[in-house]
Amino acid sequence: MTQPFYVSPEQLMKDRADFARKGIARGRSVVVLQYRDGIVFVGENPSQALHKISEIYDRIGFAAVGRYNEFENLRIAGVRLADMRGYAYDRRDVTGRGLANAYAQTLGTIFSSGGEKPYEVEIFVAEVGDDASSDQVYRLTYDGSVADVQGHAVMGGQSDKVDAYLSEHYTAGLELDAVIRLATTALGQDTVTDNGGVARTVEASALEVAVLDRTRSQPRKFKRLPDGAVAASLQG
C-alpha cells in the first residue's frame, strides 16, 4: 500500500493562495473611488447580462472580480442575509461592516478547508454614509482577509499598475464625472509596460459603472449608469 505524499501546511496554504491569485489576475480590474456625493464602482465588463457590480441593500453595494459563478453565489447569499436581518430587526441594522464580516468568515472557511478548492474571487463591500467621513469600503480577498479602504482601491487584473496611477492622480472631493474619467484612464494603464509606455483606451461600452449616491432622496442609494451617461462623463 503506497503512502500519500506529505505536504507541509505552509506549502499547502501557499499553493492554494497562488492558485486563487492566478485565477483572479486573469480578468480585468474593478476600481472603487470615493467622490463628493458618494462612492463609485468602475469596472471593465462588456457583458450586458453578467454584472460585476450590484446592489446588496439600501446603502450597500457589491463589486467582485474572479470566477463569476463563485462571486454570484456570494452576492446572492449577501442579499438574503441583508433581507433577513432587515426584516427580523430593522433596516438600519444592515451594515456594510456586518456583511463584510460574514463574507470574511465564509471565504476564510473555504480557503482553509482541504476538501475543496479556494474561491477565485476578490470583493468590495461599500456602504455610503450621510457624509464622506461615514462612508465605508471593505476589500475582501480569497482567504477571508479584510481591509478598510480609504479614497480608492483596485482589485483583479494588473491591479498594481492601476493602483499606482490612482495613487498619483486621485484627490478627495472630486465630482462624479471627474472620478469616472480618472478610473477609466487608470484601467487603461494595465498594458503600459507591454505597449511601449502608451495606455490603452477603454470605451464607455466596455465599462460597467454604478454609484452609491448619498444625495438621492429615496432610501435606495444604488444607481447603475447607462452607457450614454458614462460616455458623456468621459467626454466632459
Describe it:
It is a single chain. The radius of gyration is 18 Å and the shape is globular. Helix 5 (176-187) crosses helix 6 (227-235). 37% of the residues lie in helices and 23% in strands. The chain has helices at residues 9-25, 68-88, 96-112, 159-169, 176-187, 227-235, and strands at residues 30-35, 38-44, 53-57, 60-66, 121-127, 136-140, 146-148, 152-155, 207-213, 222-225. The strands form 2 sheets. Strands 8-1-2-9-10 form a 5-stranded antiparallel sheet. It has a 5-stranded antiparallel sheet with strand order 3-4-5-6-7. The protein starts with 8 loop residues before the first helix and ends with a helix. The mean pLDDT is 91. It contains 6 helices and 10 strands, in the order H-E-E-E-E-H-H-E-E-E-E-H-H-E-E-H. The chain has 236 residues and is α+β, with helices and mostly antiparallel strands.
